[in-house]
Amino acid sequence: MLYVVILFLFAAITLYFLLGGADFGAGIIELFTSNDNKQRTRKTSYQAIGPIWEANHMWLIITVVILFVGFPTIYSEMCVYLHIPLLIMLLGITARGTAFAFRNYDAIKDEKTQGFYNHIFVYSSFVTPMFLGIIAGSALSGQIDPTAKTFAGAYIFSWLNWFSVSVGLFTVALCGFLAAIYLIGECTEVYDIKRFIKKAKAMNIAAVVLGAQVFLASYFEHVHLADWIFGNLLSLAAVIAATLSLVLLWFIISDKKNKQWIRVLAAFQVSMILISVGHTRFPRFVIFKDGSSMSLLTDHATGKSIDDLGVGLLVGSLFILPALGYLYYSFKKKDNGQTAEH
């Protein structure tokens, strides 16, 4: 049952990155859109993320619950050493959700308040995935120093370093890339399709550049990222698969008939990136500067707690997944009906 729980943990993390990441990416795309096109971008983004913008955070909640119940020592260590970036990320999620709700459902929409909500939405959309990446980079790279004697050493420089920040910026670029790809499929006008294709290419180039910066930072921070990825057969295969899918995506991205395929390829590419890093670190979930680590296979709750958690996840998925699928289907059907009427 332990492996069932671990499978749900990684599935929740992956789905949150693919769905929630694209959700955040919509705000990132809007942030880097000219004033002339911002309103068009907002309209398309709302059509895409409106139905499930809040449901996406379900995957984050599941991740937190699994860690809290199934791996309490890992959960507590992360919350202690990374409490500052965690707090900023949670504040970003709250601010973004609030701004999204008010700017779309506010009864009185005046220019001043809408501008305020728009600024909160786009900047929190940038900050939140950035600190999500910082947390992941810090936990997996051995930046946390459990022997630190100062507050800064233990709770600041464990995440405020070149490598972790580079991972955060790389995460932002990936989220923007996913959003642009997903938004292409929501467009009906050629002008908007071309705009989002251009945004997708720009975000993809940014991801490649920032990915190179992650490797450069890992060299100077002695993280040995190259050994993680290129020293493991499965990780290397995942990187090759991600590269090939990227080439294919660029080849078919301008074809209107391949809207669904480019979404699949983008999701596949990002999933391969996650696998390339996650596989070589497994089962370690938190790695410390002194070389010690916390493992999902040893630092878990009692067997009874794991069994109960596993059963709860299996039973819960029978209700949650069909309901989430129907939610998305019903909203898309509604939107298509409205479009047809117009």
Description:
It is a single chain. By secondary structure, the protein is mainly alpha-helical. It has one domain. The protein has helices spanning 2-31, 38-49, 57-70, 72-81, 83-105, 111-140, 151-155, 162-184, 190-220, 225-230, 233-252, 259-281, 303-341, and strands at residues 284-287, 293-295. It has a two-stranded antiparallel ribbon. A hairpin with a 5-residue loop joins β1 (284-287) and β2 (293-295). α11 (233-252) runs antiparallel to α12 (259-281). It is globular. 38% of the residues are buried. It is an enzyme of class 1 (oxidoreductase). Pfam families: Cyt_bd_oxida_II (PF02322). It is found in: Cell membrane. Belongs to the cytochrome ubiquinol oxidase subunit 2 family.
Summed up:
With 342 residues, this protein is an all-alpha fold.
Key features of this structure:
globular; 78% helix; 342 residues; two-stranded antiparallel ribbon; mainly alpha
Strand and helix map with partners:
Elements: H1 2-31, H2 38-49, H3 57-70, H4 72-81, H5 83-105, H6 111-140, H7 151-155, H8 162-184, H9 190-220, H10 225-230, H11 233-252, H12 259-281, E1 284-287, E2 293-295, H13 303-341
Antiparallel strand pairs: 1-2
Helix pairs in contact: 1-2, 1-3, 1-6, 1-8, 1-13, 3-4, 5-6, 6-8, 8-9, 8-12, 11-12
Transmembrane segments: 6-32, 53-74, 80-99, 120-140, 160-184, 205-222, 228-252, 264-282, 309-329
Protein name: Cytochrome d ubiquinol oxidase subunit II
Family: Belongs to the cytochrome ubiquinol oxidase subunit 2 family.
